[in-house]
Amino acid sequence: MKYLVKGTDTYMSDEAMFEWIVEAESEREAEQKALEDLSAKAKISEVKHLSPQEAADIEYRTLTQDVRYFYLLHLLGDIPFMQYNQKAKKLEQDPCFLYNALSFYNKYMRCMRMVHRITKKEITVADAEKATDRLMKAVSEEEFNGTLESIRRAQEAKTAQGEN
User: What distance in Å separates the CA atoms of residue 38 and residue 21, rounded to the nearest whole number?
Assistant: First the structure.
């Protein structure tokens, strides 16, 4: 069974709220499982049994929040948090924002899979991310294909160096 466990935990001097879905046989077991991953200062405020649909709805909400955050990070780059929050609020008012975020995320994942495929999965996570970012910045099909080819050649050269 799935349970929603809510509460607060203290990390360093800051108190943070959490909301997790835990698989357990009872509310008591769900609470115990959640406490295993928390500090001694954690306080659980609610444990609630969830239907499969309720659990899926919560996971969907979490996923869309993560996709929005991923999109905003790529869109806004490395800026101070206050500036980030101001710009994010404006962007999220656009009725097409969620579609744009989902579309960007899906394109990014397709490019990442393509990088893995052409490098035969012999690439580091950091290099795969850099290569994917380069593909995402391509503005034409010609530029995209050229970038893809340069990624393939660079990986082949790395592999050849490792064999020597």
Answer: 14
Tokens of 122: 């012999």
Class of domain 2-50: alpha beta
- At residue 87, what is the residue type? K
**Residue 121 pLDDT > 90:** no
- Cα 126 to Cα 147: distance, rounded to the nearest angstrom: 17
Return the number of other C-beta atoms located less than 10 Å from residue 101's C-beta: 23
Q: How far apart are CA 14 and CA 94, in angstroms?
A: 32
Burial classification of residue 55, based on how many CB atoms lie within 10 Å of its CB (0-12 exposed, 13-18 middle, 19 or more buried): middle
Domain boundaries, the chain: 2-50, 62-163
pLDDT in tens, 124-158: 899 899 999 999 999 999 999 999 999 988 888 88
